[in-house]
């Protein structure tokens, strides 16, 4: 049984069809990267998967259950979600923001797990700082810690490395990989195709609301897909730490 499955999901925003028959699944133990150009529908797919974007057709199952049969509490218990939006309204200490990811635990337990999660993303030293007094990248780590604070069976992260420095990008992806290696399922949207190929077991490529590839990274990001979807002339070369994309804009 898949931890998450989308079957022929349709969704609209305003008049636009943003998901046009999207099918994909995430199994325990795997990292699935969602890639595609700006506006392809990655955030929409992730938001639909947590029940935050209403479907106009198709079916979504979380842990085998139809998402429409699950209460918000039941959804929150099986999915950790890192939204693309990084705004935090209140200037609370980072540890209190991270603890919000564990609403079902006692305050003390949530705070102690929040400290551990901040440490996991290299932000332990920020635990007692107010989030309004942080850089964008520091705040991004706090929000990731909020998603990691419980060991959810399924983790959905929307562009978790946007705005992070190169070391932090790799740290975050290592953490997501480690969660999957411990048995969670991870769906993560990424723009960096080389990093996506490094971390993911499979890549789902979205283009204009449709899935155009779903395969292991190098097959999914074939020269044809790179050209037609991303407008790149690209080739994969074997680097010391995995595949590297050598690409330029297609002429
Ligand atoms: N509130 C809205 N009303 C109408 N259309 C919207 C709205 N929000 C997003 N869209 C459109 O929905 C489509 C999918 O957007 P989505 O945010 O899912 O794409 P994305 O792949 O995550 O893009 P990005 O890489 O830029 O974050 C885009 O064409 C976008 O213009």
Automatic annotation (TrEMBL):
GO MF assignments: ATP binding
InterPro entries: AAA+_ATPase, ABC_transporter-like_ATP-bd, ABC_transporter-like_CS, P-loop_NTPase
UniProt keyword terms in alphabetical order: ATP-binding, Nucleotide-binding, Translocase, Transport
Ranges that cross the membrane: none
Ranges for domain ABC transporter: 4-233
Function recorded in the entry: Part of the ABC transporter complex HmuTUV involved in hemin import. Responsible for energy coupling to the transport system.
PANTHER family cross-referenced by the UniProt entry: HEMIN IMPORT ATP-BINDING PROTEIN HMUV
Name of this protein: ABC transporter ATP-binding protein
Species in which this protein is naturally found: Brevundimonas fontaquae
